[in-house]
Amino acid sequence: MSGQNFSKKRQMILDTIKSTDIHPSAKWVYETLKEQVPDLSLGTVYRNINLFKEQGLIIPVANVDGEERIDGDTSAHAHFVCKECGCVYDVPATHAPISEETCTLDGFCTHNTVLTYYGICGACTTI
Amino acid sequence: MSGQNFSKKRQMILDTIKSTDIHPSAKWVYETLKEQVPDLSLGTVYRNINLFKEQGLIIPVANVDGEERIDGDTSAHAHFVCKECGCVYDVPATHAPISEETCTLDGFCTHNTVLTYYGICGACTTI
DNA sequence: CTTAAAACAGTAATCATTACTGATTTGTTC
DNA sequence: GAACAAATCAGTAATGATTACTGTTTTAAG
């Protein structure tokens, strides 16, 4: 009755990604899960993240300070990246008018769209 | 009357970036200029690209296969990235409704906006 | 329980980018 | 146009994220 299920570690990696909204890096996922799963390997986290990306279970949303940040929420929405603290915030999809018309533009076949705002977040402005 | 001018190599690096629409990587700039300037160093290209980014003369537009791609055209427009060949194309700004309203959203101060479409380009579809 | 395939840990390798150091160029002042 | 200080550079070493590799462990099914 299994057969199509994920291995225990694979499932935990996906759960960890899906259960946070900080748009984590691979290293964050590794360090966070490492507490529960001491024999976790960083390579395993990378391998599974790549797998999830291929399967469309997660999406890469930004590259912050050389690290790729991913999102377990694959619904249409935009992101705000703070240049100061590196935090990645969700921005409601209403602010991101993704036009499906562009799919036929110049023969391009658009698979997904990424809209990202870069600037300074409220927390960093206040300080 | 000089004083604020760029060094010869710095100017050539900027000219090279500004004169192409392929949205080059640092390595492309290096290899392209290397033909004219045999004693050019890759470190110099990176250092000047970072300088130009700080000065707003160029903007980073995408990260393709681990390489940052830059654009010497700083006017508002979007980009299409082909997942197959890695080419980066300009998409007219009319397709990218960048809302300045988001600047005050949740205390965020937006400096710049990046809208990128990912998919397969016409050339790669045809083949 | 066996067994083959998939997944994994641990480590080494790769590759883009950055840092460092001593030499060269630039702009300025005479 | 020589001299000098600051900026820039070449070349190389270092860093750090990501990927590849190998031998071991887990998984799912018979």
In short:
The structure is a homodimer of 127-residue chains. Chain A has 127 residues and is α+β, with helices and mostly antiparallel strands. Chain A has helices at 8-18, 26-34, 42-55, 122-126; strands at residues 59-64, 67-71, 78-82, 88-91, 109-120.
- How confident overall, as mean pLDDT of chain A? 88
Q: Quick one: overall form of chain A? A: flat
CATH class of the largest domain in chain A: Mainly Alpha
- CATH-derived architecture of the largest domain in chain A: Orthogonal Bundle
Q: Identify the most extensive interface between protein chains.
A: A-B, 34 and 34 residues
Q: Note the total helix count of chain A.
A: 4
Helical amount among residues of chain A, as a percent range?
Answer: 25-40%
Question: Structural class, from helix and strand content of chain A?
Answer: alpha+beta
- Secondary-structure element order of chain A, N to C: HHHEEEEEH
- What is the rounded distance between the termini of chain A? 55 Å
Rounded to the nearest angstrom, the radius of gyration of chain A is 17 Å
Task: Provide an overview of this structure.
With 127 residues, chain A is an alpha+beta fold. Chain A folds into 2 domains: 8-71, Orthogonal Bundle (Arc Repressor Mutant, subunit A), CATH 1.10.10.10; 78-125, 2-Layer Sandwich (Dna Ligase, domain 1). The first copy, chain A, contains 4 helices and 5 strands. In chain A, strand 1 (59-64) and strand 2 form a beta hairpin. In chain A, helix 2 (26-34) packs across helix 3 (42-55). Chain A starts with 7 loop residues before the first helix and ends with a helix. Strand 5 (109-120) of chain A pairs antiparallel with strand 5 of chain B, so a sheet runs across the interface. The structure holds a DNA duplex (30 and 30 nucleotides).
